[in-house]
Each structure stands twice: as structure tokens, then as C-alpha cells.
Amino acid sequence: SHDERTFVMVKPDGVQRGLIGEIIGRLEERGLKLAGAKFMQIDEELAHEHYGEHEDKPFFDGLVEFITAGPVMAMVWEGADATRQVRQMMGTTDPAEAQPGTIRGDLGLDLGQNVIHGSDHEDPGANEREIDLFFDEDELVDWEKSDAEWVYE
Ligand code: DAT
Ligand code: MG
């Protein structure tokens, strides 16, 4: 099916650096379909919920401080295998390992300030969980993209 949804977010560094358009452009050009978007400020509580899996890590406090330091562009993107596709486009967490051509490999240099978040495809249910955390059902749009038959055979 072509309707897997995944949660994607341009982080505060990406917003401040004027990379929202660049990042949306890459996802659009790939053929993915936008299902929801919200320009917003993450508060402490939401940051703790979103990054709960990292609560015990030494970098957790810095991560919460960073993700709440300015607005983010929270989005839901849809497509076949969308979660894994977006992770491939993002590149690895460590920018020193991220391949050129990936979003992090092209736009980031720092392990913490790495421009984009995408749901982990190796954590089943992470996409749905994160979408639920950031969006109400009525904030997501079901629509037909007219080029779908030219994107998918
Ligand atoms: P990803 O964002 O690729 O899913 P993650 O879930 O392991 O990576 O970590 C979440 C974020 O936390 C990551 O984007 C950047 C930050 N982070 C991860 N490991 C870190 C480390 N060792 N030192 C500092 N920040 C780190
Ligand atoms: Mg992760």
C-alpha cells in the first residue's frame, strides 16, 4: 500500500537556518505526499514524551533544551514504506557517517543539531505514536495526489 504515514520534523536549527523549504522540497520531489503540517513550539513536556526513549542518556537534557529552543516544522508524510524511505533520505544520526546526498549529509555537521527528525523504522509503531503525539486526527488530510499513478507502478 502507498499510505504508510511517518512523522517528520524540521528541527529548530533547520528552521533558524532557513532549511524548511529545502527539506520539504526534497520530500515532495521524491514523490511523498504531505498529509499534515504544523509550525509550532515544542514545550518541555512534549519534548520529554517525544524523546522518552532517550531519558537515561547523558545527552538527554541537552536534547530537550535544543528541541525546545525555537520553533519546529512538524509534518506527516505519506507513501509506500514512507518511514524507511524518509530515514534513508535523512542519513545517519552521526553527520560524519551521513552520506552526501542525504539531508544530514548535505545540510548538517553536528551530531546534536542535525536538522531533521524522522520516525525510526526499526521501532515498530514509532511512526503512529509520534503522529498521535503531535497531531489530532482532524489535522491530517486524506487526499489524492494526481501524479500517484506516475510515481507508483
Ligand atoms: P535519530 O535522530 O537519528 O533517530 P536518535 O533517536 O538515536 O537519532 O537520537 C535522537 C537525537 O538525539 C539525535 O537526532 C541527536 C541526539 N543524539 C543522539 N545521540 C547523541 C549523542 N551521542 N550525543 C549527542 N546527541 C545525540
Ligand atoms: Mg530516533
Automatic annotation (TrEMBL):
Keyword terms, alphabetized: ATP-binding, Cytoplasm, Kinase, Magnesium, Metal-binding, Nucleotide metabolism, Nucleotide-binding, Phosphoprotein, Transferase
GO molecular function: ATP binding; metal ion binding; nucleoside diphosphate kinase activity
Superkingdom of the organism of origin: Archaea
Any Gene Ontology CC annotation: cytoplasm
Residue intervals of the Nucleoside diphosphate kinase-like domain: 3-142
Residues the record marks as active site: 117
Cofactors (names): Mg(2+)
Catalytic activity: a ribonucleoside 5'-diphosphate + ATP = a ribonucleoside 5'-triphosphate + ADP; a 2'-deoxyribonucleoside 5'-diphosphate + ATP = a 2'-deoxyribonucleoside 5'-triphosphate + ADP
Top EC class, one word: transferase
SUPFAM superfamilies the UniProt entry points to: Nucleoside diphosphate kinase, NDK (SSF54919)
Cellular location(s): Cytoplasm
Alphabetical GO biological process terms: CTP biosynthetic process; GTP biosynthetic process; UTP biosynthetic process
Gene3D superfamilies, A to Z: Nucleoside diphosphate kinase-like domain
CDD domains, A to Z: NDPk_I
Pfam families for the chain: NDK
Positions that bind ATP: 11, 59, 87, 93, 104, 114
EC numbers, comma separated: 2.7.4.6
PANTHER family for this protein: NUCLEOSIDE DIPHOSPHATE KINASE (PTHR11349)
Family label: Belongs to the NDK family.
Function: Major role in the synthesis of nucleoside triphosphates other than ATP. The ATP gamma phosphate is transferred to the NDP beta phosphate via a ping-pong mechanism, using a phosphorylated active-site intermediate.
HAMAP family: NDP_kinase
The protein, known as: Nucleoside diphosphate kinase
Taxonomic source organism: Halorientalis pallida
